[in-house]
Design brief:
The structure is a single chain. The protein has helices at about 5-10, 115-120, and strands at about 15, 35, 60, 80, 105, 125-130. The termini are far apart. The protein is of the alpha/beta class. Helices cover about 15% and strands about 15% of the residues.
């Protein structure tokens, strides 16, 4: 492993906010990441590549083109998640497994009330914020 790759593998915080990122697949080896900001990556539609990032504590996907949160279901340590302004988001079923999730930001979404009510039942410790 090169020195550069080794240094990157030790990152615990990364912001790629506002970049032209289209896929999270290239991040899968950054397993020590605790905080990741992918907000306003307007071409990002899938987060399946994040499933290996089991140490993530905070994640912002605000303003992305994400359609489903199913790719987040393995992020068991996640405590704060920002899905604000993800206007194409139609499913948050993957979040039901995130028992440590405490704060979920959902402002500016066209998300069905029934789905958020079901999520509240599954994760009663979680606060959903719409601001």
């Amino acid at each position: 492993m090169s020195e550069c790759a080794r240094a990157l593998s030790n990152l615990d915080e990364l912001s790629l906010a506002g970049t032209q990122l289209t896929s999270a697949d290239g991040l899968k080896d950054l397993r020590k990441l605790r905080t990741l900001d992918l907000s306003n990556c307007r071409n990002l539609t899938s987060v399946d590549g994040l499933k290996e990032l089991s140490n993530l504590d905070e994640l912002s996907l605000a303003g992305t083109q994400l359609t489903s949160a199913d790719g987040l279901k393995d992020l068991r340590k996640l405590r704060a998640l920002d899905l604000s302004n993800c206007r194409n988001l139609t499913s948050v079923d993957g979040l039901k497994e995130l028992k440590n999730l405490r704060t979920l930001y959902l402002s500016k979404n066209q998300f069905p009330t029934e789905a958020t009510n079901e999520l509240r039942k599954q994760l009663p410790q979680m606060e959903i914020t719409y601001q």
